[in-house]
Amino acid sequence: GENVEQHPSTLSVQEGDSAVIKCTYSDSASNYFPWYKQELGKGPQLIIDIRSNVGEKKDQRIAVTLNKTAKHFSLHITETQPEDSAVYFCAASDYSSASKIIFGSGTRLSIRP
Amino acid sequence: KAGVTQTPRYLIKTRGQQVTLSCSPISGHRSVSWYQQTPGQGLQFLFEYFSETQRNKGNFPGRFSGRQFSNSRSEMNVSTLELGDSALYLCASSPSGEDTQYFGPGTRLTVL
């Protein structure tokens, strides 16, 4: 079955700097890769997603890149702000069923003022 | 549109009791999935309901069950609670299940 590894588990960056979180997956059938942000006391919120026919996608300060050959995808946050502090989860799915979505173990991102 | 809502937000139970959690999906969404989130195991899929039928089930014991009503609202039940059932239980909805999951705020269950 699918396995998703996420690194690092914790990340601390200076406000204004960039943050990068990386994930690798094992199932070559996976073709949908969402990223979720979870703040304290809340459920995960989708922040960006990418499908396998796209190599990169941007939404303001957030970007995701996908390398299908190497089976890895990354989240890039530029010009980090205090409100970016949260736990971030990557996930991989073959988009056929909710049961097939496998989540990474999460990255706790802290933004230092 | 209103987001996914879950009730109650917090629950404290003792071992051996049973509990029912409720989830109202985003209007128009027919698929509801349930997840268990713990520090040690992360996010784990429990089951998915679509049009009142359980469509998929994760690797959890039979003490965990659920159902979905005709208005797509879903309930999850855990019987004979164990200490290890303490977790954040998340509900997510999507239009058909074959697309993006939108999560609710979760129900924090503590078993004493």
What does this entry look like structurally?
The complex is a heterodimer of chains A (113) and B (112). Chain A is mainly beta and 113 residues long. Chain A has no helices and 11 strands. Chain A has strands at residues 4-7, 10-14, 19-25, 32-38, 45-51, 56-59, 62-67, 72-77, 86-92, 102-103, 107-112. In chain A, the strands form 2 sheets. In chain A, strands 2, 4, 5, 9, 10 and 11 form a 6-stranded mixed β-sheet that branches. In chain B, 0% of the residues lie in helices and 54% in strands. Chain B has strands at residues 5-7, 10-13, 19-24, 31-38, 42-50, 53-57, 64-68, 74-78, 87-94, 102-103, 107-111. In chain B, strands 2, 4, 5, 6, 9, 10 and 11 form a 7-stranded mixed β-sheet that branches. Chain B is globular and about 35 Å long. The mean pLDDT of chain B is 93. The chains are: A mainly beta (113), B mainly beta (112). The A-B interface holds A 34, 36, 41-46, 49, 89, 95-99, 101, 103-106 and B 4, 6, 31, 33, 42-43, 45, 47-48, 55-58, 90, 92, 94, 97-106.
